[in-house]
Amino acid sequence: MGCQRSGWVLIVLIGVGMSAGPAYAHRDDYINETFVFETLGAGEFEPEVWYDHLPAQEGSGPVERYAAAFEYGITPRFMVDAFAGWVDPSGGDASFSRFRAEARTRFGEEGDRAVDVAASFEVEYERGPEELSAPGVERTWLLTPRLVLSRDFGRQLNATLNLDLTTELRSHAADRFAPGYAIGLRFPREALFRYGLEWRQDFSERTRSVLFPQIWLSLPHDATFKLGVGFGGGAAASERAFRAVFEIEF
User: Fold this and answer.
1) What band does 59 get if pLDDT is binned at 50, 70 and 90?
2) How far apart are CA 87 and CA 63, in angstroms?
3) Distances in whole angstroms, Cα of residue 177 to Cα of each of 130, 204, 233
4) DSSP SS3 for 158
5) Does a structural domain hold residue 17?
6) Residue 111 — left, alpha, or beta (φ > 0 → left; ψ -120 to 50 → alpha)?
7) What phi and psi, each to the nearest 5 degrees, are found at residue 235?
8) DSSP secondary-structure letter at 113?
9) Which residues span the domain enclosing 120?
10) Continuous segment of H or E residues that includes residue 203
11) Residue 89 scores a pLDDT above 90
């Protein structure tokens, strides 16, 4: 209950803070897939590689996860991205585990409104741990419309709020509709080192939450290295994840 209360308190604080003053939205998505208002420019292409390490838990060994992703700007205000992931359990072979495709559009330019608004639609295919070991188990398809709200406080601190409504397409799902939200805070706007904090919570059959502090290193040639540690809460209370992401823009 404490984790849930903390999340709702953050939402209220951001909502109050978003009510006045100028906005200077940020462009790079957060390390745990909290999406931001800004989109890539038309014709811009950004490939990414991801690496996760999940330490051993009671009853299971460590797990490595790998992913490749890209973002591409279609118009100045509309972009698409895709993500493919593999999981490598301890003592096993790497297996395909996840695919995600997303389209995002933003309404206006940053600073046009007190709160910058964007919307996205996501399709995701996911295989859970039990599905990886049992090929006959039905896979999971998820559809998620998302509202993105972004606000800068001064020219340094950015606050981003995602409001999701995920629909699970498996016919036997007990709870097909799962609302959720994500909050991202990042400081400063542009620097060699940038620091961020994400809080994500979804309300599916088992409420899950993740807190993800992170640091970003800006490299030459529009490259960025991101490093973070995720701490699970709720149904994911025992989960930990160390994540590294490298991206470069063309």
Assistant:
1) low
2) 7
3) 22, 7, 21
4) strand
5) yes
6) left
7) -65, -15
8) S
9) 2-179
10) none
11) no
- Name residue 147's amino acid: L
E strands, 55-190, in order: 63-75, 78-89, 95-107, 116-126, 140-153, 157-168, 177-187
Q: How many domains are there within the chain?
A: 1
- Residue 235's pLDDT is 53
The set of residues, in sequence order, having a beta carbon less than 8 Å from that of 152 and lying 6+ positions away, is: 22, 23, 24, 25, 26, 158, 159, 189
Question: pLDDT class for 238, splitting at 50, 70, 90?
Answer: low
Q: Does 246 reside within a domain?
A: no
**Concatenated DSSP letters for 43-63?**
T-EEEEEEEEEE--BTTB--E
Burial class from Cβ neighbours inside 10 Å (0-12, 13-18, 19+) for residue 76 reads middle
Q: How many helices (H) and strands (E) does the chain have?
A: 2, 12
Per the listing, tokens 């960025």 go with: 224
147-173: pLDDT as tens digits: 999 998 887 899 999 999 998 886 555
Residue 185 lies in a domain: no
How much is the average pLDDT of 213-228? 93
Task: Report yes or no on 7 lying in a domain.
Answer: yes
Bond from prior residue into 89 cis (ω within 30 degrees of 0) = no
Compute CA distances 206 → 82, 178, 202, 224, 234, whole Å: 27, 10, 8, 34, 8
